[in-house]
Amino acid sequence: MTSKQFVRYVAKKNGWTLPTARVAIASIFDSLYSALTDGESVKILNFGTFDVVTRKPKAIGKPDTHERYIIPERKYVRFLPNTYLRHDVRRLINVPDNADEIDDFEFDDSDEID
User: Which residue, of 11, 72, 90, 103, has the greatest Cβ tally within 10 A?
Assistant: First the structure.
């Protein structure tokens, strides 16, 4: 869904004009952007949580020269969907709800890709 389609969807769903929907959506995303750039976590009820996470520095080596490099720590935005959203999306792609608990999953021969 593109931004334009999203604005149209929100406008139609709420009975708003396109400019009203556009302003409302822009306001929400501006607030989300501001909170995340300030390092705050944003929890949206019945949707999920956006938060800023720091990735630790990591040492890597070039295979051909064996030179060592350090990738410095960096921050990134992580989204964790709430339970209901995660389960609804899994149903779309036919993943069982207990997929997190399945350790011994085996592919059938019919699942192989040629």
Answer: 11
